[in-house]
Amino acid sequence: MTPNLKNILAATLVLCAIAQALPSRPENSHIYDENRLVPAQQLEFFDRLSDEVANETGISIDAVLLDDIGERVAAKYAEGIAEKWQADAGREGEVLIFVAQKQRRKLVVTRGTARDILDEAKIRKAEQEFLVPNFRQERYGDGILSLAGWLTFTISDSTGKKFDIDMQEAPAEEGMTVRGWIFVAVVFGLLIAFGRKGRRFGFFDNMKKLLCVSEIEKSQWPGIFRDAFGENLVSAFISGRCLVEGFDALATPWTIDFILRDNSPEVVAKLDAFQEKARRENIAFGHFYTPAEIAQIHDPQELEYLQIASRNAPLCGVQDFGVQDLGAQDFKNC
Q1: What is the DSSP code (8-state) at residue 28?
Q2: CA gap 159, 58 in Å, rounded
Q3: In the chain, N or C terminus with fewer CB closer than 10 Å?
């Protein structure tokens, strides 16, 4: 055997040994939990959160909790796991929460696109704020979930993506101590201090809360209205004070009015199934007019009609019903 061949074989064996020493990515989970420190309910929620983020952004949030890594350098070992897991998942980015219990090491490693959008200094600060206090109290699931929530919020804020995850639904570990409640209060205080960004985070409102007209136009709502009312729908539109300068979408929902050929209670009730989704996404259903009712108030001197005609953002159906462009006869013929 030639020296070069021996060297290649030796290098191959070393690489194989290193690869075998790295924990394998679980087939059906985003957490490798060697000592089963994370309760099942929290593990399930973490997986759902990570799946949502990965599907929307191509970035996978994973966690590895190991008992003992021996003499390995924690940072390099974590980077090796992150690189392997990213390749195994075929994702564009990887965020790995790494914990080595006996070495008391807790850190976050980023790869690919995640490294471009997550600030290293802020990650180190988040580790200290979310992981360390919970782990000191042996509340491992709370620590992992709270840090994952912060990462999700940060990725959402950086990419503009919204995730169908409500952090209010995140399960907590049983037996919250006084110190634990103090920690939760501090975390909530920090999120409140973020103001607008904190409110967009799921602790207060669902992360899908719609904050501008363009987001509503691009959302599922126009399709929902068309499917719910079919040919009975003349128009669905945002109007009134929602379109006035100074409107605060964080404090007040967007009001959507409708023009329906038939606005009987049975027809209007078709939206009842979407009330909870509307609440979470900052939507309120307003008036349900008929074409005849619009025709009756079609007078430039009528305040109600002026508010509709001069301040409207159509979502589907009739796209223009300004004072000059759409006469009463047009609605009578609908």
Answers
A1: S
A2: 11
A3: N
Least confident of 9-13, 105-109, 173-177, 271-275: 9-13
Beta strands 283-289; 254-260: pairing state: parallel
Instruction: Tell me the domain boundaries of the chain.
Output: 18-200, 213-332
Q: What is the pLDDT of residue 303?
A: 45
Q: What share of the chain is helix, strand, coil (3-state, %, to 5)?
A: 50, 15, 30
Q: Which of 226, 294, 216, 220 is nearest to 259 (CA)?
A: 294
Separation between Cα atoms, residue 174 and residue 29, nearest integer Å: 22
Distance CA 147, CA 195 (A): 19
Whole-model pTM?
0.50
| Lowest-confidence region among 82-96, 204-218, 253-267, 299-313 | 299-313
- Token code pair at residue 142: 């709370």
If one compares 215 and 98, the residue with the highest pLDDT of the two is: 98
* Structural contact between residues 148 and 171, judged by C-beta atoms closer than 8 angstroms: no
18-200 CATH: 3.10.310.50
